[in-house]
Amino acid sequence: MQIQISGHQIEVTQALRDHVQSRLIKLDKYFDNVTSLAVVLSVEKLQHRVEATLSAAGCTLHAEASDGDMYASVDALLDKLVAQLRKHKEKLTAHHRSAGRELRAE
């Protein structure tokens, strides 16, 4: 997975870059076919905002989170992306109707 981190009117420090990479690398655990992830960090007055666009096999997901602290907003973004990936994976693998037909055929 390629992670691209950029800042909008903010300088992305090495500590912040390492935190973002260490948190968002965990997305591979939830879905194997994640190809790229673009993260944009920005500050608007007192709100620290993080936006991410994730490209995976068959879908493109977008999430954004804001908080008073940049590290907290990265953690909130991770939670939102995990929820979206779980929902997408369930859509791909859920075949409730066909499983019921197989049981009735036996």
Keywords:
single chain, alpha+beta, 42% helix, 4-stranded mixed β-sheet, Double Stranded RNA Binding Domain, 106 residues
CATH architecture: 2-Layer Sandwich
Number of beta strands: 4
Counting helices, strands and paired strands, the structural category is alpha+beta
Enumerate the strands of the largest sheet in spatial order, edge to edge or round the barrel: 1-2-3-4
Question: What fold name stands as the CATH topology?
Answer: Double Stranded RNA Binding Domain
What is the domain total for the residues? Answer: 1
CATH class: Alpha Beta
According to CATH, the homologous superfamily is Ribosome hibernation promotion factor-like
What gap, in angstroms, lies between the N and C termini? 43 Å
- Low-confidence runs of at least 5 consecutive residues: none
- Taking Cα atoms only, what radius of gyration do you get, to the nearest Å? 17 Å
Q: Please estimate the helix content.
A: 40-55%
Secondary-structure element pattern, one letter each:
EHEEEHH
**Major pleated sheet:** 4 strands, mixed
Shape: elongated
Individual helix count: 3
Relative strand content? 25-35%
Compact overview of the structure:
42% of the residues lie in helices and 35% in strands.
